[in-house]
Amino acid sequence: MKLMTLARRCALWALLASALTANAQSSAITLRDDLGTEHRFASPPQRIVTLLPSLTESVWALGGGPRLVGVDRFSNWPADLAALPRLGGLDDAQIETIAALKPDVVLASTSARSIDRLEALGFKVLRLKSETHADVRRTLVLLATLLGTPAEGERVWQRIQRDIAAAAERVPPSRRGQRVYFEIGGGPYAAGRNSFIGETLTLLGMDNIVPAELGPFPKLNPEFVVRALPQVVMGVQREQAAMAARPGWQSIPAIAQNQRCGFETLRYEMLIRPGPRMGEAAGVLADCLAGLGHPAKP
Fold this sequence. Notes:
With 298 residues, the protein is of the alpha/beta class. It folds into two domains: 29-132, Nitrogenase molybdenum iron protein domain (Rossmann fold, 3-Layer(aba) Sandwich), CATH 3.40.50.1980; 157-291, Rossmann fold (3-Layer(aba) Sandwich), CATH 3.40.50. The protein is built from twelve helices and eleven strands.
């Protein structure tokens, strides 16, 4: 009888061990970043460092805010991030400080050039890019999976889509099809047609002067903009006054007729970040287009 009891106990222990192993395997995560590197995690990471504002915002929107232990110097949304350590940027990440935080994972841009040493030290670094709407959707799904909440990625993406569609409804019919130029910073870079900004503008019914073949964010010769004759110009507010002083730019319809959307810094930062606030950004663009009024007749 005692032998039977012992055998049953051993069988129960074996079943329990098998269940625990299966549970551990089910919580394990395997992901491939945008450089093609495969990363394996035994469980969702609890200590996360982000080195790009859009990645910080994405983690936050997906419910991972409490797991953030450090961010790049430019991450400023939401305000709750203010207390977190600032860890540099694309070219000057503070390697020793990051290592001291003992992150389970570091999220960075594919163009980050200063974090190779983190990988050499044994830290997992996921390098991600978000130049298009498809990139943003993929990043959200990947990060949601990393956090152990895979359904959240698609939920956030669908919310973005609904907000963009609602913004498009607010663009006056008279604006649809007008040529638009979206300047990055003070130039000479622009948001091309196949960038996430350009794709949003297309969904709002605008005609981007920068063709897709030039890439997402091409460097432009100022004369290109003059020849393209945009009817609406968009960019950061602090550069608007200087535009009219550029050689030949007074002949541009948007400049001559003051059809310009100049955004104050915080709103502009939201517009150029490919993340969970893209729907809100579309609303800001639509509201500016609706508020420009009719251009003066020549």
